[in-house]
Amino acid sequence: MTLLAEDVWFRYGRRGPWVVRGASLAVAPGEVVGLHGPSGAGKSTLGGLLAGLVAPSRGRVTVDGVPPRPDRRAGRPNPVQFAHQHAHLAMDPRWSVREVLAEAGAGEVPAELVPAALLDRFPHEISGGEAQRVNVARALLAGPRFLVADEITASLDAIGQARVWRLLLARVRARGIGVLAISHDRPLLDVVADRVVAFADLTAPAGAEPDGTSPDR
Ligand code: ADP
Ligand code: ADP
């Protein structure tokens, strides 16, 4: 059970620049891998590929040989959950926090992530940092094997950041969830991750083109 990217290439549209160029990466169960790089490098895009939010233009992303995708008809959520940096964008404005969490799955919601006072609020009534914590709680309730955590504490102060990560790390370790922690904040990744990879080391230089031998979609 490994989350695997193999020679993954991706661009937005048919003619845009290649944003992800031949990236290969493995995340093992229970492992926290940090993905570091400057803003705009392509980290979120690679995270979205690993979570199956978008399909590679070339190459493969798999969990145990199967592309990560929710099986809605079988009622199975995606084994790879994605927690957004822009958490508000991931929330339906018509749903209260309580409804968002109930829809994700059954289970206890840590009050440290989502205090009771937040439960009956709607997305426009909570801050960016609160939305990020709701998003993390939602992802955990979905019972993932892997979690892509994209700048999940970027809107929190240092204390809030430490609280969220301490709680998250305890949960993922207890359940053997593999994590891809995406951040531009190298010192943060050095603290939370078992190993840190630089986006630039995963991908060919800007302007590189895939060769004709890669599997096409
Ligand atoms: P980040 O801080 O992760 O680089 P941004 O704030 O730049 O993200 O982008 C916010 C949202 O807009 C993201 O969901 C991202 O996927 C999307 N986005 C970023 N750049 C573009 C673009 N050039 N065209 C369309 N959507 C974009
Ligand atoms: P990072 O997460 O490292 O900040 P992103 O993956 O958000 O980087 O963005 C990488 C590049 O892809 C940027 O140039 C961004 O503008 C572009 N991009 C991101 N989302 C979109 C989109 N939906 N459509 C077009 N371009 C996008």
UniProtKB/TrEMBL annotation:
Signal peptide span: none
Q: Keyword set for this entry?
A: ATP-binding, Nucleotide-binding, Transport
Give the Gene3D superfamilies listed for this entry. P-loop containing nucleotide triphosphate hydrolases
Q: Which InterPro entries match?
A: AAA+_ATPase, ABC_transp_ATP-bind, ABC_transporter-like_ATP-bd, ABC_transporter-like_CS, P-loop_NTPase
In the record, biological process GO terms are: transmembrane transport
Which PROSITE patterns does the record cross-reference, listed alphabetically? ABC_TRANSPORTER_1 (PS00211), ABC_TRANSPORTER_2 (PS50893)
Note one Pfam family from the annotation. ABC_tran
Any coiled-coil regions, as ranges: none
- GO molecular function annotations of the record: ATP binding; ATP hydrolysis activity
Which residue ranges does the record assign to the ABC transporter domain? 3-217
The entry's family comment says: Belongs to the ABC transporter superfamily.
PANTHER family assigned: D,D-DIPEPTIDE TRANSPORT ATP-BINDING PROTEIN DDPF-RELATED, TRANSPORT ATP-BINDING PROTEIN
For this entry, the protein name equals ATP-binding cassette domain-containing protein
Tell me the organism: Saccharothrix syringae
Taxonomic lineage? Bacteria, Bacillati, Actinomycetota, Actinomycetes, Pseudonocardiales
